[in-house]
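Single-chain item
Fold in token form
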Amino acid sequence: MMVGVLAFCGVVVAVMQTLVVPLLPHVPALTGATPSAASWLVTVTLLTGAVCTPVLGRVGDMYGKRRVLVAALGVLVVGSVLCAVSSDIGVLIAGRALQGAALAVVPLGISIMRDELPPARVLSSVALMSSTLGIGAAVGLPIAALVIEHSDWHTMFWASAGLGLLDVVLVLVFVPESPLRARGRFDVVGAIGLSGALVALLLAVTQGGEWGWGSTRIVGLFVAAVVIGLAWGFYEMRVSSPMVDLRVSARPAVLLANIAALLIGFSFYANSLVTGQMVQEPKVTGYGLGASIVVSGLCLLPGGITMVALSPISARISTSRGPKVTLGLAAVVMIVGYVLRFFTSHSLLMIIIGATVVSSGTALAYSALPSLVMRAVPVSETGAANGLNTLMRSVGQAFCSAVVAAVLANVTFQVGGHTAPTLHAYLLVFLIAGGAALAALLVTLGLPGRTASVAGTVEVRGSKTLAQEGA
């Protein structure tokens, strides 16, 4: 029951991340806001999620994972209610910021599973929990589209508040508090430094197209991200209880897993971003299908179902062959999916098949990544390490969003009295996303071979992994 509850929490949080995507084109008319202000309904969740995921993961390691999990879900409920009761863009952005903070639920759930489950169940359960990020995104889009077309748009925020409250109750009833705690004091300076670097970087990436990539603000943000990041790293190497243990993070098994997470996040998000827009393009473009917003959302639903089905299969592959093999297979599947998308973008059926193949690869990858990380970090740092890995996926998605927006905005033509992306723009996106999956495959090949099993690592109830003890 605990696994089902935690997975449900993950799906609800993932749905929150994509909930407003179908609503964005209508926000200016509904709220009187500018399109630029409306875009912050997505940007702000990315920023708060990026900041809170590793920070709350570390807090959970030190003060109790279930306690922090409940707090994160409570913040999601508050944010949902704020969005449900107002049409003011400022209030909506504040509510979305609170919703984004709940992204930490996924790495916290993974950490609880590692602490509480018997070794034989860890891999399959973690695989399911990690995949909820993709499952929720695939399910959330068509549900949100249906609500927008057939009901008041505030309804979806009331529903999210109700689901978040249900999650809180279920966690309190069925999820035990882990007795494992990391020692030391919480690194406040490290948390502030990491947050500052992330905000500067992600703000530059997400707003570059709007403010101008060569503008003083964007260049200044990139410079600030580098300077703050270097200062933060210098400090973290010298503090006794760091926010992120950079020595552990620099190990090839952890570093390459995080790089792979960034690339997989980039490749996966392209699939989500362009599928709906592509099928909604008018038929006069020569490639568009003129589909409704609901149909466009439903194109991703088979992928979400496939991700649920593949989670236990991914765990079995990781058990028998190791998560490195699973991650490599995932990258290959994603490459195949984008090859299909590149050559078969005129048929709705083939678009759905291609999108589903990409989602299948994503399911395998998201299931394998936590296992790779857990094999290489101390039990006491599971929350922070998985939080950092989840963060890297979000950073990859942010870069993907910027790249896709730039391609679709610049590779255009005039048709039917308006400007639209050309077919080549979409094909270029598929080529770039497939290249990211290929890069992930190459990174995966560089990962160390099979190490101590996750089952063995879970049995170590101290501050070291088996690999450390044997070193």
Q: What stands out?
A: Residues 451-471 have pLDDT under 50 and may be disordered. Residues 180 and 208 are 42 Å apart (CA to CA). Strands lie at 412-415, 418-421. DSSP finds 20 helices and two strands in the chain.
